[in-house]
Write a structure and sequence with these properties.
Elements: E1 4-7, E2 10-13, E3 18-24, E4 32-39, E5 46-51, E6 58-60, E7 68-73, E8 78-83, E9 92-100, H1 110-115, E10 118-119, E11 123-128
Parallel strand pairs: 2-11
Antiparallel strand pairs: 1-3, 3-8, 4-5, 4-9, 5-6, 7-8, 9-10, 9-11
Length: 129
Amino acid sequence: QLQLVESGGGLVQSGGSLRLSCAASRFTLDYYGIGWFRQAPGKEREGVSCISFRSVSTEYLDSVKGRFTISRDNAKNTVYLQMNSLKPEDTAVYYCAARSGYVCSDVTDPSQAAGMNYWGKGTLVTVSS
């Protein structure tokens, strides 16, 4: 079974940067569409970004466009979420999720999260003002 492990979360000041990693073993992530999702305290989970299998396309939540970048390093079998110009409202637990052969759709579509087959345990990002 595909296991995903997120890392890179932490405490950062507003305007700072973090790079989240989503790593897997035993399975080649390039064959999977990978989504980043987040859930803030008291709020519903929301899609943040997605990279399709074979990196054919990427999608972003409007509020992170121009600040966040999703990418793959196939040699390391890892997907990254580079987060710049962080804001306090970005504070949340961030999860990566995978679905084989997936081409990303609108990240605000709830069916995207529902369709993911594998989830990591999350990494906490806290942005102080």
